[in-house]
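Q: How would the structure tokens look for this protein?
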Amino acid sequence: MIRRSSIPARGAPAFSLIELIIVILIASLIAALAFSTISFNTKPKQTVGIFQLKSPKMSPQGDAQLVCLDHCHTCTLSVNGDAAPLPSTFPEVTAYALDESGSSQEIDFGRVHEKKVCLRFHFYANGSTSQMILASGETYYFIPSFFGKIETFDTLDGAVTRWRQYRDQLDSMGTFF
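A: Here is the predicted structure in token form.
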């Protein structure tokens, strides 16, 4: 009986080890290029809302401006001329600032592309931000420009009083330096 061997005889056509390695390298390179172009977005998208305005995650490098339209449902963050949309969790808000006499005045942010601007918030390179009072329903939010967190109040008068206290604290700190 003649036994046939499963090992090919010498000289029979076969792939060499170097050819197999080259094929594996080429296939690996193609797979790496394909997967590098696919973005695996495992981080949750950054959203912007009232309490995120003073968050360190929200502080861009350099001067920036947040503009919200469509009753604060659509927001865009512009940093050094580059604009990027941000998902918004803002309720519809009304913004207030104090005038020279210390009275609260509603802020009119104007229009962009025929749409009313709900909020225009500035981030400055020195770490400060716009200072304002935001009103949403029966809640008022005092947003300080330098130090501290956003504070909530039941009345506009409470937020205005806090603004004045904050201004007085900053004025007294200036005499120290």
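The CA atoms of residues 23 and 156 lie 72 Å apart.

Residues 50-176 form one domain.

Upvote if useful.
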